User: Fold this.
Amino acid sequence: GESVGLHLPTLSVQEGDNSIINCAYSNSASDYFIWYKQESGKGPQFIIDIRSNMDKRQGQRVTVLLNKTVKHLSLQIAATQPGDSAVYFCAETAETGANNLFFGTGTRLTVIP
Amino acid sequence: EPEVTQTPSHQVTQMGQEVILRCVPISNHLYFYWYRQILGQKVEFLVSFYNNEISEKSEIFDDQFSVERPDGSNFTLKIRSTKLEDSAMYFCASQTSFSRDISYNEQFFGPGTRLTVL
Assistant:
């Protein structure tokens, strides 16, 4: 199956700083990528998505960058807040099959007040 | 704001017993999913369901697993004879529609059911 992985399992940042969370994927046929946030005891929560025909997409305080050449995805969080502390997963859907999500292993973001 | 709900929040069972995990998807959604997350690991796809039948299933979803939507509201996952390795968080998700020609339609996840098999 597809392989979606993360470079770093943990990331600590000072409140107010920017955070960058990285993700690598291996399936060249992947055409849609999503970042999810998972707080303790809760289900994954959609943050932002990007299609393979784009290389950048911005949301509120978040930006996703896609580099298809090296199969790399990143999530940038501006002015990180304590409420951003969570595990962040990248997920992708392959071109074939239904809309099943394949998740990476997750990065735990800790915001230091 | 509509949300996906799941019951129970925690289920403890003996190995070999049957369990049924229940989900109530968002009411106008058409696509339904089950995922699981073993403690400390990534979320894994189990099965997708549309129009009262399974659309896709993973290798994890073997003959011990089944899903159904018995009453047009609940979406259930049954494990017939639980094994120790079935211990995990099980997440239900639902989605309004699915089209690869338009923007992806977000999958909304429930809070999960923690299954513990002893």
